[in-house]
Amino acid sequence: MKIMLLSLMVLGFTTSGFSQAKKPTIMVVPSDVWCNQNGYMKEFDNQGTKEKVPDYKRAFQENADLIAMISKINGLMADRGFPLKNMESVMKTLASESAEDAMLTSKSGGGGVVESPIDKLRKTAKADIIMQLTFEVLKTGPKKSIRFTLQGIDAYTDKEVATAGGTGNPSFSADPAVLLEEAVIDKIDNFNAGLQRHFDDLFANGREIIVRVKKFEKWNGDLEKEYGGEELGTIIENWMKANTVKGRFSTSESTENMLLFEQVRIPLYDASGNAIDARGFTRNLQKFLTAAPYSIVNKLMTKGLGQAVIVLGDK
User: Fold this and answer.
1) C-alpha distances in angstroms, 275 versus 32, 177, 196, 203, 213?
2) Nearest CA-CA partner of 94 in 113, 116, 61
3) CB–CB of 225/232 below 8 Å?
4) Nearest to 23 by CA among 131, 118, 120, 119
5) Is-above-0.70 flag for pTM?
6) What does the pLDDT look like over 55-96, one tens digit per residue?
7) Euclidean distance between CA atoms 164 and 150, whole angstroms
């Protein structure tokens, strides 16, 4: 009897711990394909090159089916304990920001980093996973069905980490949201399991970002300059080893003028439980280089959640 009670207690603790495991924060968005097929695209200037991006604002203002579809997916995910960011609310926050510059440059001129409208949306949302939804209403006589695709995209790396898709059974229902639920319901749990496996890996091994270190042309130093008998590039690599999760990163390029670090694994959360992105992690490197004995003036720039650039020699 005592053994049985002990076993039940252990099972209770295990189940409780599992249920309290952190889950990824998700934002559901219409896919680029859906936006293009339905005429919701606009152009933005990327350093003189015109690029097409989804016009989410107009899509939400004009397409009631889209709102209903995303609301249905939000509900299905919330019922399964996955926290969600509301895309419409995030877009309102983004629209209220006064600074919507296409390019950031140094105060005295120099290189910059271009952020697309999509990068800015992701940075504002700070979701772990972007859940892209593509759907189409099919008609067979008086019956309708939904063909859909769900793609779980890591918001920091753009890697696809989970996918689901299919076509629901034909129905007389005229409500696209109901048709979507009927099509998705038997696939959503496997999809969520894929999201959770990816997030568990991030929790154990760190989130993946990219960090670049460059120099302004007018700076009289470079990454081969020595401090205490050690080159600056080596000093920065040693800092990365000490501050990444399990010392995991790859030095993809190393010259006197640039360092490129890829597959940089950073903690998901800081000591206060706040999510860490590329900017938050790289700000610590910025402070390290600004302090003695290096005292290097530098500028930190970011692209979305997962890419950061430090440019040495100016602000």
Assistant:
1) 27, 32, 17, 11, 23
2) 116
3) yes
4) 131
5) yes
6) 998 999 999 999 999 999 999 999 988 888 988 888 888 776
7) 5
